[in-house]
Amino acid sequence: MSKLDNIVLTKLYYSIGEVATIFDVNTSLIRFWEKEFTVIQPKKNKKGNRLFTVKDIEHFNKIYQLVKEQGYTLDGAKKALKSGEKGHLEGNQNEVLIDKLEKIKSQLLALKK
């Protein structure tokens, strides 16, 4: 179950404390994951306070599910995130390749006869 299921994100930016409260973790973990995962890129105000967008929070949710709920290591979570992002592109490329291979196969079978 996702931490964001029962939460409506209405604000444009959220502070690190608000994000930590949403996921029930320490702010130090939020800062650590920010450094570890390049998909999280909060804006910073003049004071240097982090301001997280809804997109950042959604990335945190994916990372939280992988690491805390499914037991992935940080490296495993990074790989899972990368394969998830590429998955849509790779799926389309695989379909194109399969179509091409099937056409080649049918041409070769026609030459064999």
What this model shows, in words?
The chain has 113 residues and is mainly alpha-helical. The model has no long low-confidence stretch (mean pLDDT 85). The chain is built from four helices and three strands. The longest helix has 39 residues, at 74-112. Helix 1 packs across helix 2 and helix 3 (54-69) crosses helix 4. The N and C termini lie far apart (57 Å).
State the separation between the terminal residues, measured CA to CA: 57 Å
What sort of overall outline do the alpha carbons produce when their principal axes are compared? elongated
pLDDT < 50 runs, ≥5 residues: none
Largest sheet: 3 strands, antiparallel
Secondary structure tally: strands: 3
Q: Give the amount of beta strand, in percent.
A: 5-15%
**Within the largest sheet, what's the order of strands?**
1-3-2
What keywords describe this structure?
elongated, 113 residues, 65% helix, 3 strands
What is the topology?
Elements: E1 14-15, H1 16-23, H2 27-36, E2 43-44, E3 50-52, H3 54-69, H4 74-112
Antiparallel strand pairs: 1-3, 2-3
Helix pairs in contact: 1-2, 3-4
Summarize the structure.
The chain is mainly alpha-helical and 113 residues long.
